[in-house]
Design goal:
By secondary structure, the chain is mostly helical. It has a single domain, classed as Rna Polymerase Sigma Factor, Chain: A (Orthogonal Bundle). It is built from 4 helices and no strands.
Length: 108
Protein backbone atom coordinates (compact mmCIF):
# COMPACT_ATOMS: atom_id res chain seq x y z
CA UNK A 1 0.00 0.00 0.00
CA UNK A 2 2.88 2.40 0.72
CA UNK A 3 4.09 2.18 -2.87
CA UNK A 4 0.59 2.71 -4.24
CA UNK A 5 0.08 5.62 -1.87
CA UNK A 6 3.28 7.29 -3.03
CA UNK A 7 2.28 6.90 -6.68
CA UNK A 8 -1.18 8.31 -5.97
CA UNK A 9 0.30 11.27 -4.09
CA UNK A 10 2.59 12.03 -7.02
CA UNK A 11 -0.25 11.72 -9.55
CA UNK A 12 -2.55 13.90 -7.42
CA UNK A 13 0.24 16.48 -7.17
CA UNK A 14 0.31 16.55 -10.99
CA UNK A 15 -3.43 17.34 -11.08
CA UNK A 16 -4.76 13.83 -11.77
CA UNK A 17 -8.30 13.94 -10.34
CA UNK A 18 -8.94 10.16 -10.47
CA UNK A 19 -5.72 9.67 -8.47
CA UNK A 20 -6.99 12.14 -5.87
CA UNK A 21 -10.30 10.27 -5.71
CA UNK A 22 -8.50 6.96 -5.15
CA UNK A 23 -6.19 8.58 -2.58
CA UNK A 24 -9.08 9.95 -0.55
CA UNK A 25 -10.88 6.60 -0.77
CA UNK A 26 -7.79 4.81 0.59
CA UNK A 27 -7.32 7.30 3.40
CA UNK A 28 -10.99 8.03 4.18
CA UNK A 29 -10.98 6.31 7.58
CA UNK A 30 -7.81 8.17 8.59
CA UNK A 31 -9.28 11.48 7.38
CA UNK A 32 -12.42 10.89 9.48
CA UNK A 33 -10.24 10.15 12.50
CA UNK A 34 -8.33 13.39 11.88
CA UNK A 35 -11.56 15.38 11.54
CA UNK A 36 -12.91 13.89 14.77
CA UNK A 37 -9.70 14.86 16.58
CA UNK A 38 -9.82 18.42 15.21
CA UNK A 39 -13.44 18.78 16.34
CA UNK A 40 -12.86 17.33 19.81
CA UNK A 41 -13.54 19.74 22.64
CA UNK A 42 -15.97 21.83 20.60
CA UNK A 43 -19.42 21.92 22.19
CA UNK A 44 -21.33 22.67 19.01
CA UNK A 45 -19.28 21.80 15.94
CA UNK A 46 -20.41 23.60 12.83
CA UNK A 47 -19.79 20.60 10.62
CA UNK A 48 -20.05 16.96 11.55
CA UNK A 49 -17.10 14.67 10.91
CA UNK A 50 -18.32 13.40 7.55
CA UNK A 51 -19.18 16.91 6.35
CA UNK A 52 -15.76 18.17 7.33
CA UNK A 53 -13.99 15.39 5.41
CA UNK A 54 -16.16 15.99 2.34
CA UNK A 55 -15.62 19.76 2.42
CA UNK A 56 -11.88 19.15 2.72
CA UNK A 57 -12.03 16.89 -0.35
CA UNK A 58 -13.88 19.60 -2.29
CA UNK A 59 -11.23 22.14 -1.36
CA UNK A 60 -8.57 19.75 -2.65
CA UNK A 61 -10.49 19.44 -5.94
CA UNK A 62 -10.92 23.21 -6.25
CA UNK A 63 -7.21 23.82 -5.74
CA UNK A 64 -6.38 22.05 -9.01
CA UNK A 65 -2.98 20.80 -7.92
CA UNK A 66 -2.19 19.13 -4.64
CA UNK A 67 1.51 19.68 -3.96
CA UNK A 68 2.38 17.04 -1.35
CA UNK A 69 5.55 15.11 -0.73
CA UNK A 70 4.43 12.18 1.40
CA UNK A 71 1.66 10.82 3.62
CA UNK A 72 2.57 13.02 6.60
CA UNK A 73 2.57 16.13 4.41
CA UNK A 74 -0.86 15.14 3.02
CA UNK A 75 -2.32 14.81 6.53
CA UNK A 76 -0.74 18.08 7.67
CA UNK A 77 -2.32 19.81 4.69
CA UNK A 78 -5.67 18.11 5.34
CA UNK A 79 -5.60 19.20 8.99
CA UNK A 80 -4.88 22.80 8.01
CA UNK A 81 -7.71 22.79 5.46
CA UNK A 82 -10.12 21.33 8.05
CA UNK A 83 -9.21 24.02 10.59
CA UNK A 84 -9.69 26.71 7.93
CA UNK A 85 -13.09 25.25 7.06
CA UNK A 86 -14.21 25.36 10.68
CA UNK A 87 -13.05 28.99 10.92
CA UNK A 88 -14.85 29.91 7.70
CA UNK A 89 -18.10 28.35 8.88
CA UNK A 90 -17.80 30.07 12.27
CA UNK A 91 -17.27 33.42 10.53
CA UNK A 92 -20.36 32.84 8.38
CA UNK A 93 -22.43 31.99 11.45
CA UNK A 94 -21.24 35.10 13.28
CA UNK A 95 -21.91 37.28 10.23
CA UNK A 96 -25.46 35.91 10.08
CA UNK A 97 -25.94 36.90 13.74
CA UNK A 98 -25.05 40.47 12.80
CA UNK A 99 -27.64 40.57 10.02
CA UNK A 100 -25.39 39.08 7.36
CA UNK A 101 -27.77 39.04 4.39
CA UNK A 102 -30.31 41.60 5.58
CA UNK A 103 -31.28 44.42 3.24
CA UNK A 104 -30.51 47.82 4.73
CA UNK A 105 -33.01 50.59 4.33
CA UNK A 106 -32.16 54.18 5.19
CA UNK A 107 -34.75 56.09 7.17
CA UNK A 108 -35.04 59.83 6.68
Amino acid sequence: MAGELTLLLQAASDGDEPALNRLVALLYVDLRRLARRIQSGRHNPTLDTTGLVHECYLRFLDSGQLAVNDRAHFFNLAARVMRQLLCDYARERLAAKRGGGAIRVELH
